[in-house]
Amino acid sequence: MSALPGTGRRRFIAIGFRVGTYLALSLIMGPVIWLVTGIISRAVPHFSWSVLTHPTAGESGGLENAIIGTLLLMLGVLVIAGGIGILAGLHLAEFAKPRKSGKESGHLLRTASDVLSGFPSIVLGYVGYVALVLGLHWNFSLLAAWIILSIMVIPYIAKSTETALRQVPTAYREGAEALGMPAGYALRKVTLKTALPGIVTGLLIALAIACGETAPLIYTAGAFADSPVSVSLTHHPVPYLTFLVYGFYTLPENASHYLAYDAGLILVVLVLLLLVSARLIVNRTQHYSEGRR
Predict the structure, then answer these.
(1) Is residue 3 situated within a structural domain?
(2) How confident is the model at residue 97 (pLDDT cuts 50, 70, 90)?
(3) Is residue 32 situated within a structural domain?
(4) Which pTM does this prediction carry?
């Protein structure tokens, strides 16, 4: 039996697409593996567990205060940006209705979010410095850093939340309505639960950005590596890991370089922990979903 006309051409195109996907995957994974391997190879030979329990002292010491400061920054972003971003995405996906003009009521909000996501982080940091550090006399502080970091990542959370909610099949909503579920109960138990993987992904991106930013934090949290951690929301600088990576690597002493490598390693570990935690949450909440039956 002879092959169907065009079979060889289609097979060639399919193989080409498969090779292209593998090439794209290697272009993504290659730099990641190179960066992670470089950080680990430089940090592990000189790593000491004492850096986790001792604060920074001048150009030496440990990273305890910077680790705590970074975790506080991430916690604030999770609460402030997570709450506002998820509510904004929920409004755009579920409550923004078309007007008589043909545009949704959330058109302005979506446009503002897109514009905000395009602002350079250093510009937002300078605005925070002028408005919060100097204008409100907060000085370098935790609250100023929270606000600027949250403003920077809210568009990502809102967009990912809206996209995840819009991808929930219409049949799920219709089924909940047919069963007589109240709108609020159906939204919580059906729509949001189904969209949870996408929402968690948006939060993960936000925390990763907050964990790895430096420029806006220099303007709002300060640039004091050996500053002790304080519970005061204003009038006290906050130490954080990214400044140590940036600042200590430029110093001539080897001890400073080792601290910079250790700070980079801890940042990588934090990101990996975020990834693992997100996957565990998604797998737990989607245990009885349709795709796992």
Answers:
(1) no
(2) low
(3) no
(4) 0.83
